[in-house]
């Protein structure tokens, strides 16, 4: 029987999930603190941990590190409030399997658990088949959907333009915008298309094994090196190596990477033998590497070497036309996975989607659409099944005045007042006001417009 | 038979418990016990002007309030939850706490009555 550990200080959630999952054939244990949960894992390793993002004695980031330090193969799913979604998405880049937002729908969690337990844990790179696309694989174009917006098309034009050259490419964009998709597109349009495409998430490789993972090792290089091992550079020979979240590589690895790029040679860990490599590098980052250069955590020479051609993938909120295209794609995926037959979205939902900020980009959209498919009682997804946070933060002009009484009116008034207060305190400097309100500038602008606040 | 009440909606809970009446009752008792404790704690933190404490209790209460669709009180709990990260006018905190306390007590009474009638 597969074992699940729930770590949450909320007894309501624990009771609900414990009983529900037991009814569905799992062995379930519960811990109410981070410390209790970790002690439990040390004694009896579960297959999956369902963990609250905010525990009284630790946050999600710390918990992920601690759980993976005990046993990398444990799948971790986080339970979050909507305000933590952005951070939760970052955690997926660091090896968490998935996140679910409150309110909890046990059926949704069960679905994720089944999928997670059939997938090898992300950070256990040493045990996971190399994420490579070979020419014999299904064409990537059949597995991904293209955007339809002008901005997306422009990025694709750049990708196709640079593809046949040997230039290294740096793709910048927020987490979840589809940077790997662009990297694959470049590879598919290049002369290397019949050779491997190897995608490596540098953020998910533990620092102490990054050297061995990228450049390989020889038997005896370290205690557990019982055989010679090829690194990703050798595996990608003749093809393309996609280094996602390159800003996470340590300084030591950056030096070795620079040498590989400049001299086209590598050495395996524990060996002096020089190996020639012919690999095109496409790197990606979700941060401003310029800042990392300024604080000396990223080498400037390496930055220039990987950034012979720069591509910026705009976030989803800058290309609302793509939102619907992708929403339809995820709807079809959701129908297939959940065995449903939802036909589409009501007009109001489409407007809400187009006007929501999607800070988690495609992953957030995918999760929302999938959850909506699960909850949809009719043929079309209606606004009432969307999370409140999506409706509340979607900047469709509210029918202010039409329903301004009671609690709702009080909420609107309170929000207006808070905005006015912050604007006054910041002497109408919108950046500062946004900071005071703990929202970004775009959100503030939209709220100002929504409430007709004169500034 | 599905219940419909003005302050909450038990249908999502009914769906979650897979028609197991004992499970349903257990969840309602869990909610009542937790909420009774949380309301007392919330008031204590407000009285002590421990705003971070207020935010943390509100954050914890939100999960079950969302699950039981207590939609009128969710905005107030969300407002109080923000105290974990930012400050707010004391009058706003007091007002939000007052509403949460007042309506939550009514909800707890209704649920208790429902459970008594069931037994």
Question: From the helix content, strand content and strand pairing of chain B, which structural class follows?
Answer: mainly alpha
Helix fraction of chain B by DSSP (H/I, runs of at least 4): over 70%
Taking Cα atoms only, what radius of gyration of chain A do you get, to the nearest Å?
Answer: 24 Å
Strand content of chain A: 5-15%
- The protein's oligomeric status is heterodimer
CA(first)-CA(last) distance of chain A: 62 Å
Q: Report the mean per-residue pLDDT of chain A as an integer.
A: 84
- Give the domain tally of chain B: 1
Q: Provide the residue-averaged pLDDT of chain B.
A: 89
Total strands of chain B? 0
Q: How far apart are the termini of chain B?
A: 17 Å
Instruction: Note the overall shape of chain B.
Output: elongated
Spatial strand order of the main sheet of chain A? 8-10-11-14-9-15
Number of H- or I-type helical stretches of chain B: 5
Q: Mind telling me the CATH superfamily name of the largest domain in chain A?
A: P-loop containing nucleotide triphosphate hydrolases
Radius of gyration of chain B: 15 Å
* Beta-strand residue percentage of chain B: under 5%
Range of helix content of chain A: 40-55%
CATH topology of the largest domain in chain A: Rossmann fold
How would a textbook summarize the main sheet of chain A? 6 strands, mixed
| Tally of helical runs of chain A | 20
